[in-house]
Amino acid sequence: MYAAKAEIVGNVWRVVAQEGDHVAAGDLVAVLETMKMEIPVHAGEAGTVRLKVAEGQIVQEGDVIAEIG
Known about the structure:
The radius of gyration is 11 Å and the shape is globular. Strand 4 and strand 5 form a beta hairpin. The strands form 2 sheets. A 4-stranded antiparallel β-sheet has the order 1-8-6-3, with no helix packed on it. Strands 5-4-2-7 form a 4-stranded antiparallel β-sheet, with no helix packed on it. The chain has strands at about 1-5, 10-15, 20-25, 30-35, 35-40, 45-50, 60, 65-69. It is mainly β.
């Protein structure tokens, strides 16, 4: 199982993948926003998405955005 994690403290601006979606490695899962910058979060491997965040949620560096497996 792969865990897509936040690389920086920020706000979950947009969740692109939906719970149960099948994604390919490299697909966009979510977008974080911090200091007016958009930070994409990509799937590191192919699999089914299990979301761990919601839009508007604040995340810390290292927090899991989604599990993919």
